[in-house]
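Team,

Forwarding the record for the chain on the shared tracking sheet. I've put the sequence and predicted structure together so nobody has to dig through attachments.
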Amino acid sequence: MNDTDQARADLAFMKALVEEGGRSQMIGGSVFVAGGSLYGLQCLVHWTQTVGITHLSDTFMLFFVIGITAAFLLALGVVLWRHRKAVQHAVGTRALNAAFNAAGVGNLVLCAVFGLVAWQEKNMTIWLLYPVTISVAQGCAWFVAYMVNRRLWLGAVSLGWYATAVGLGLLIGTNRLADYVLLMALALLLLMAVPGGMMMRQAKRSL
């Protein structure tokens, strides 16, 4: 292979990385928008219940929570199906995908552990520690994204999640459950849904 052919091959490889990275960003951004918006809404509804703005029955809340998760899983399925080729072939952002996938799997495991222990011990405080761990995991994942891309807004999102973890921890045991739930709702909306929208916007520019 001569220098010209090598240069063309290098350009083709770089183009593939950019395009695949854009598709991966679109997938991740879409999932973050869906998850942040839906679970942020769920927390806001719980907050209105806590402060007495709404008075919804336990049965309604049970189906509401189930419906939120069902809606998220449906949105996740649609996103993965629409971008299935990118899922199979994208290589440009494997480090970021690994970080966020690890955080997601870790969240599921922690949910099961904290939920089981809280139920066995009949202790709500144990369950309230779960969102704290979610915030730390998200902070770690976004910090990896910052280290890879060196974009300040990614670092700001990471710091926001770490600050959320500290804030939630300080609110546990202070009889300020409403503030706790509201903080989690704002974190999901501002530190997950909004950054997800930014990722989708950047992905559209690169595709």
